[in-house]
Amino acid sequence: MANDEHVAILKEGVDAWNAWRDKDPDFLANLSDADLPEALAGANLSEGDLTGANLRGANLRGADLSGADLIDASISQASLPGANLNRANLSGAALAGADLREAGLSRANLRGANLGVANLAGANLSEADLTGALLSRADLRGADLHGASLVEARLFSANLSGANLSAALLFMANLGGADLRGANLRGANLSVAHLFSANLSGADLAGANLESAILMDVDLTGADLTGCRTHGVSAWRLKLDGAKQQNLLITGADEPAITVDNIEVAQFTAWARRSHRFDYTPSRDAGSAAPIAVGDSPKGTLVECATKVSGSLGWSAVLHSRCSRLVLKTFTDHTLRAHRRARVGGPKANCLIGTGALLQW
Question: Is residue 257 part of a domain?
Answer without folding.
Answer: no
